[in-house]
Predict the 3D structure of the following.
Amino acid sequence: MTDSSGSGDSVDVAFVGRANIDLTIHVPHRARPGRTAIGSPLTATAGGKSLNQAIAAARHGGRATLIANVGADTWGHQITTALTDAGVDTRHVQLIPDATTAAAIIEVTPDGESYITLALSPATELTPGDIHRAAAGLGTEAVIVQLDLPPEPVTTLLSHRRAPIIIGNLVPHPDLGPTLLAELDVLVVNQHEAAAILRTTAGNPLDAAVALQRLGPRTVVVTAGPNGAAFTHPHGSATLPAPAVPVVDTTGAGDAFLGCLALDLARHTPYPRPSAPPSMPAPTPSGTVALTRRHIGFPDGSTGSTAAASTTRPGFIGQLTQSRQSQAPQVGPPNPRRPTPRAQPPLRMPIHPR
């Protein structure tokens, strides 16, 4: 993942992580101890955090590639077909012989909440060698990595900067060196993941974002479901509301949000200045749109992850008009082609030069 200029193998965003099959059932309620809950017919669709995010970016008009392994079985081929149909580059998705593709068992309750158990496939986990092979000749503006992967491939990725923008997601693997978080330009987690990292209970997402930033990432985003999201970066912070929508299925909503956010950052979409006219329309967050879709299909009728419901205009970037810094300049993850701006003194937030 080198300089993306002039490369025939260049993309906007490279997603590094897992792909699996989602086995989804809608239930009237979760089964009580010793009892059985009767649910809907089972559906089997392509899923996984990184897959969802890659499809979201592709549906958003971006050039996305997925770096992941799946088994050379029926599920593995279903996953690669879904990715190809969604327009995601699959050159770095490896089919591992004699390996079983990972699966997520998803229960969806009437309120749209999802309960997920992931059955990992150790034989398909990424290795440092997979990272090196994918990096050879691949140009990209941004890399987003699942931090809960085995520490070796994540360390390989973060120790050797692979793109101008590095984004981390999820709770880091317990064996991942804590200092590696300082290599992230952006950390994106939900409020429960933030609480797990900080070893506390879920609280105010903005407070969590500020606390996480002290661990090293330059910018932190904490999503809070119906309560929107909070962000902090060296030039300001804010909490942004989420539009109210009828919730059908929350599966993949955060991935839809993150896939589109990563694409906006890769394209260096500027954060609007806080002085922008109040009448400026704020695009609908892609993750919110994903909530209104069932996990079994895309808006265009093709099968796959809920993340593909994110076909709206850029969402989170377009809403960063509530920054607390009234004179904040255009900011975003550091671009090697321009100097990194210094933090405004009142915020006293650490800056980690790249």
User: Anything to note?
Assistant: The CA atoms of residues 83 and 306 lie 13 Å apart. The chain has eight helices and 13 strands. The first helix runs from residue 49 to 59. Residues 2-7, 272-354 have pLDDT under 50 and may be disordered.
